[in-house]
Amino acid sequence: MTLPSRRAFVTAAMATLLVGCGGGGGGGKSDGAGTAPGESTPSPSGSSGRDSRDSGKAVHALGRSVPVGLRVPAIQVDTSVMRLGLATDGSVQVPPIEADDRAGWYQHSPTPGQVGPSVILGHVTVGKYGDGVFRQLARLRRGDRIVTRLENGTEAEFAVSEVRTVAQAEFPTDDVYGDVGRPELRLITCGGPRSGDGYRDSVIVFATLSEGSP
Q1: What is the pLDDT of residue 92?
Q2: Which pLDDT score is estimated for 181?
Q3: Are 190 and 203 in contact (CB under 8 A)?
Q4: pLDDT < 70 regions, the chain
Q5: Pick the CATH number of 6-55+62-209 from 2.60.120.290, 2.40.50.140, 3.40.50.1820, 2.40.260.10
Q6: Which residues contact 146 (CB under 8 A, 6 or more apart)?
Q7: Cβ distance 168 to 188 under 8 Å?
Q8: pTM (2 d.p.)
Q9: Which of 167, 165, 181 is nearest to 61 (CA)?
């Protein structure tokens, strides 16, 4: 199967962020973690996502294995992970709006631990069911652990390098989807105040593979 080009990936992913954040009410108010449009939630070191990709020790990349679970202890997330492809309109599929909300891995991105940015999406709210699996994503801080459970029975552990809340109109496509020379992870949801049936902002967590992952 031919994978979509990076341009198609970015376009589709941005469409997902605009329409796939669990709109339709029932989610309550924003958690207040958003910043003004175009600003980033600063990490303690003040580094940017791109800076974090170009520094630090090299770690051994893992072989391909599809993620089946995700744990983020700092925000009490422990979820199964479904595969997401492309919808008929070319946008990235999103997890269904249901009570048993799950995260979803975009299957045309690397698997967690492979070289490149592996992308996992989740809802901030799920309509009448209330909070989504990534409701507290913006509360993560530099150094927090993210553990992906892989289909081959191993785990790939990542450390948060940065958390950004940005206006969707100013989504940093190069920083999020650009080529990187080491294994990284992106967790993405919506945030900030509600705007119509959705949200104004995007919350993006950047993380790098930790040393010692199998």
Answers
A1: 75
A2: 95
A3: yes
A4: 1-58
A5: 2.40.260.10
A6: 70, 71, 72, 157, 158, 159, 160, 185, 187, 205, 207
A7: no
A8: 0.77
A9: 181
